[in-house]
Amino acid sequence: MGRRIHAPRRGSLAFYPRVRARKLIPRIRSWPEVSEGPCLLGFAAYKAGMTHVVMVESDPSSPLYGREVVKACTVLDAPPLYVCAVRAYERHPLGLRTLTECFAEDLPKGLERTIRPLPKRGGSLEEIEANLNRVAEIRVLVCTQPRKSGLGKKKPEVFEIKIGGGEVKGQFEYAKSILGKEVKVTEVFKDGQYVDVISITKGKGFEGVVKRFGVKIMPRWHKHRKGYRKVGAISPQHPSMMFTIPRPGQLGFQQRTEFNKRLLKVGSDPSEVQVKGGFVGYGVVRGDYLLIEGSIPGPRGRLVKLRLPVRGPTWKAEPPKISFISLESKQGA
To answer: Is residue 4 assigned to a domain?
Structure first.
């Protein structure tokens, strides 16, 4: 028998179509079911940069279990979210439908940059309470406060966060208690917890098949007249071209979700993670922060949404034992 040819297809069909995201803000399409509550099921923060920590390995399956290891981590700047409105949804044959919503009386500065014109009227809390038997979900409309971050921007982002846990009546009472107030990240997440990270990846523009799909480069002497950073045969003559063939096009700037990322630290003292000279291309972290193990999608300064895990780990999450956080400058020698 001759040599067996091994030529697996390049690229994954799991991410088709590879087109640009419609918005810069990621969209959460599903929320987890939680037993404890009521509570917010998510939060949002700005990606500041990366550093590394020295911590005790807590994975029993690791050969370094119980010993100190060095791990890369990402720092997120998490200023408080302002709860602008309470929104009630009812069941409909085509899905969820907005029943009514109630905005807070005092809206934060800069919100008119995102919502024009600002809502002057709408439903009331009494109307929602009178129709709780029709309510299927309670969500809150929140906005970020970038003026309190190190990003240096003024326009806030507005999005929804679902309230989970308990019954609808308890969720409504919780939403009513936080309406028109700030919610801090320390009220939503804790050290050692696992979260899902949703973000828009770094855009790379129009790229060829070698970078976009990992197609093998042809030998320089082979097909030199037609090029060597191409696909050898894109399709048979009949039927027409197949969509599975790697073709050049958009790379990056696509929504991606990373499941079960570990929160190493959730704190309020920015000096604990502030590197010398500030994070390159971002600046300084001014308030609450998140320290996540490993890397996350998106460039620095991009808004990242965090959600309680929809398929969390089966083992109990415990706070990690961190002995050192690197604060050395990331600006090079």
So the answer is: no
